[in-house]
Design goal:
By secondary structure, this protein is of the alpha/beta class. Strand 2 and strand 3 form a beta hairpin. The radius of gyration is 18 Å and the shape is globular. It is built from 6 helices and 10 strands; from the N terminus they run E-E-E-H-E-H-E-H-E-E-E-H-E-H-E-H. The strands form 2 sheets. The chain has a 5-stranded mixed sheet, with helices on both faces. Strands 8-7-6-9-10 form a 5-stranded mixed sheet. It folds into 2 domains: 109 residues, ATPase, nucleotide binding domain (Nucleotidyltransferase, domain 5); 85 residues, ATPase, nucleotide binding domain (Nucleotidyltransferase, domain 5).
């Protein structure tokens, strides 16, 4: 089972191909200004490095948010284009899910995993996961809300995500809280391994659709009659 995954939801572009849990090719570009131009060449470069073509890939997966509006659209449009001409199964996964998955690999006995991602503008994207895989709906909250969110959770809690540096002073005094600040960057090979486990465990895969938690800045005004 071969999986092609890519991500342009943040400041970098990454592409990976896996067979099972084994990553057989990986490419990364940290130049944010060329994502639209570089993504397809990077996919084809990664396929060439693995001595594969699109017809050899069984699954395609992509990050659908939260993150850069433009980056998410680039990745989703590319994924949909590939799927039109290739016989593979497409799926999407969120940055929040991947962060929780990576934390769960490190600490297996926590009751909850709280993921805080930097949403900028003094805000965070937040999602709380149970160890059984279920999750609360993702939210957009203010930085000042973090302590209250953690305070409502019971049991051993893992806290992770690239928003942690902005709220560390709020969280460090909470009991039964393990902070994992290392898992701040998501790369395509994490997506491959997550999707591989999801397939093996016969979990439902998300459709390739965007996850927009923050409402758009631009508002369409009705035309005056």
């Amino acid at each position: 089972m071969k999986i092609l995954a890519f991500d342009t939801s943040t400041g970098s572009t990454s592409v990976a191909i896996s067979e099972g849990q084994n990553i057989i090719a990986y490419t990364e570009d940290n130049n944010i200004s060329v994502q639209a131009e570089r993504l397809v060449p990077m996919i084809e470069e990664t396929l060439a490095n693995a001595n594969l073509s699109y017809r050899n890939i069984d699954y395609l997966s992509v990050i659908n948010g939260p993150g850069s509006f433009t980056g998410i659209r680039i990745a989703l449009a590319t994924a949909q284009g590939i799927l039109l001409g290739a016989e593979m199964i497409g799926s999407a996964v969120t940055n929040l899910e991947i962060a929780a998955y990576r934390a769960r690999l490190q600490v297996k006995e926590a009751s909850k995993i709280a993921v805080f991602l930097n949403a900028f503008r003094g805000q965070l994207y937040v999602q709380v996961f149970d160890t059984n895989g279920s999750a609360q709906a993702p939210e957009l909250v203010n930085l000042s809300d973090a302590s209250e969110i953690i305070g409502k959770l019971k049991g051993e809690i893992i806290c992770t995500g690239d928003g942690i540096p902005h709220i560390y002073d709020q969280l460090k005094s909470h009991d039964k809280l393990l902070i994992l600040p290392r898992f701040s960057k998501i790369r395509a090979f994490h997506i491959c391994r997550y999707i591989n486990l999801a397939i093996e465990n016969k979990l439902n895969l998300n459709a390739i659709e965007p996850l927009y938690i923050r409402p758009p800045d631009a508002v369409v005004k009705p035309i005056a009659k």
